[in-house]
Design brief:
Layout (H helix, E strand, L loop, with lengths): L2 H27 L6 E5 L5 H10 L4 E6 L2 H14 L5 E5 L12 E7 L10 H10 L1 E16 L5 H10 L4 H4 L11 H7 L3 E13 L4 H15 L8 H11 L14 E12 L3
Parallel strand pairs: 1-2, 1-4, 2-3, 4-5
Antiparallel strand pairs: 5-7, 6-7
């Protein structure tokens, strides 16, 4: 399996954890029925399905991603859902959107624009706002925390600090460029009525097969690639608790309980 295929597989498997949180965020935003929006960095298109449901049959969602492999998968998912008339996809870079000014009523970016690869979140946010009509919304969402190893808070904190998939997005960056400071980005570029909310999802034993698979994939995505900074002791504990073949696999606990959060920032384009 190629790296991209493995990534697509994990995105699909972990969606069951994200879906209820994304639905809660979408309800909070109250996207207008019949509106047209952009899903910037749409991945395999699963959030686009939820957005299309929210804006109704007269609305439309355009999904944009830089990776054609993800878009091919997204197109298959949308076709199977019966929402092809409401969702379309385009290949492109969120840093240089292939759309005219004021093209959309709103723009949404989940787990993409919130983790810019360079220290230029303001220019990226300005580019997203450029394609939104006056009065429309710009929305950024990103996974912001988790507690997946109940009973082992210090180990989980150390794994987050030394072995987390989030590290490349934050290591060496200025504090102002980190996603948790996004409210300041919105204020600095002049978006109106900036808001911030955090939405919580949780799971508990007994775990369904779908949720168990999702948690296994999530744990692998977060900590499955060992980094030089992680200690031998912590890596041994990770393997003991987080590998499904281990007799101490943490998801087998009869009282297993975990939570995870998405943080959402939004504001309106002046005019």
């Amino acid at each position: 399996m190629t790296d991209k295929a493995a990534y697509i597989k994990k995105l699909a498997e972990t969606h069951s954890l994200r879906e209820s949180i994304l639905r809660s965020a979408i309800r909070t935003l109250k996207l207008p029925s019949g509106s047209r929006g952009l899903d910037a960095g749409c991945g395999i298109g699963l959030p686009a399905l939820l957005l299309a449901e929210a804006v109704g049959p007269d609305g439309h969602v355009t999904g944009l991603d830089i990776f054609p492999e993800l878009l091919l998968h997204a197109e298959r998912i949308v076709k199977e859902s019966g929402l092809s008339g409401q969702i379309s996809f385009k290949e492109g870079d969120i840093h240089k959107l292939p759309f005219e000014d004021d093209s959309f009523d709103w723009v949404w970016s989940s787990d993409c624009a919130g983790y810019p690869s360079a220290d230029k979140p303001l220019s990226l946010l300005k580019e997203l706002a450029r394609v939104v009509k006056p009065g429309g919304m710009v929305v950024l969402l990103a996974w912001s925390s988790q507690q997946l190893l109940p009973g082992y808070p210090l180990l989980e904190a150390r794994l987050n600090a030394t072995c987390s998939a989030v590290i490349p997005y934050v290591k060496g960056k200025e504090p102002e460029s980190i996603f948790s400071r996004a409210l300041g980005w919105f204020q600095e570029i002049g978006l109106l009525e900036p808001e911030a909310r955090t939405f919580v999802g949780d799971v508990r034993a007994p775990l369904s097969k779908e949720i168990r698979t999702a948690l296994i994939s999530l744990i692998e995505m977060l900590w499955g690639e060992r980094q030089p900074e992680v200690s031998e002791e912590d890596w041994g504990e990770y393997q003991r608790l987080c590998l499904p073949e281990s007799p101490d696999f943490i998801l087998n606990l009869p009282d297993y309980c975990a939570f995870f959060t998405y943080s959402v920032f939004w504001g309106r384009v002046p005019g």
